[in-house]
Design a protein that fits this description.
Blueprint: H1 2-18, H2 21-26, E1 28-35, E2 46-47, H3 49-62, E3 66-77, E4 80-91, E5 94-107, E6 110-117, H4 120-126
Length: 131
């Protein structure tokens, strides 16, 4: 089951990169929860697939020029997947590149939780892993 979870995480990132928000939406459980780091302007939590998708749409509005993840590293952690990626975005000609880490939690083939962290170490810790 855990390799299936890694594939679901990969599909979510690929759907984002393709701008296919319908495909991304289909990967989330209707009752999913998303949490940003507490020091972010809008930490959430975002409760339910609709709220998560609204937040994703806002990110796309803020960074409309380009908006994708690369250097994707996915680590199997049972019912969780730790993701480390580089985010590339741009707005009004101002580029941004940032390293990001998060933890997906899966159940019955869907994402039930997405937690964003300021570092890979914090994401691994949240998933019960160490480097």
């Amino acid at each position: 089951m855990s390799q299936e979870n890694v594939e679901i995480a990969r599909q979510a990132i690929e759907a984002w990169n393709a701008g296919d928000m319908d495909a991304l939406r289909a990967l989330y459980d209707p009752e999913a929860v998303m949490r940003n780091p507490p020091d972010w302007a809008e930490p959430g939590p975002y409760l339910g697939r609709d709220a998560i998708m609204r937040q994703f749409s806002q990110v796309r509005e803020i960074w409309p020029d380009e908006n994708f993840f690369d250097r994707v590293d996915l680590l199997d952690a049972g019912d969780r997947v730790v993701a480390q990626v580089d985010f590339h975005g741009g707005t009004r000609g101002l580029p941004l590149t940032a390293e990001m880490a998060w933890v997906y939690t899966m159940r019955h083939g869907l994402i039930v939780s997405l937690e964003l962290f300021p570092s890979r170490e914090k994401a691994l810790e949240a998933a019960g892993l160490t480097e």
